[in-house]
Design goal:
Number of helices: 3
Strand content: 25-35%
Strand order of the largest sheet: 4-5-6-7
Number of strands: 7
Helix content: 10-25%
Structural class: alpha+beta
Low-confidence stretches: none
Order of helices and strands: EEEEHEEEHH
Largest sheet: 4 strands, mixed
Amino acid sequence: MQRTIRYDRRSGTLIFGDTTRPYRDVGFTLHATELTSIKATDFKAAMSSYLYDWEDGTVEVYVVEDDFDEFDDEYSTPGPVTFVQHRGSLLVRVALATKAHEDDDEGSPEPLYRSALVLQP
């Protein structure tokens, strides 16, 4: 069975479908819509393969949520969701900015609930 994503050591790129994505200064960047075709087990294996190649211990994959038509893996601004492969675990990091006065209002959603909405898709 062919993997939905893999790391190619010769070119130093992630390959999924017809797309190749090079490692940039801080990590790899994917668009949120590209994640729907990638299995988590394949994603973890690709990140592990990258780490084995570089023996660095941690690799980050940034997720861009802007319009796909304007997406550029080098210049687009990442969203709040980042995948981190660290010590054999694939982790999801969500940067959550809140305003304290909004969180104190009655009926205001909990910050954890807000991050669940971001992760759902």
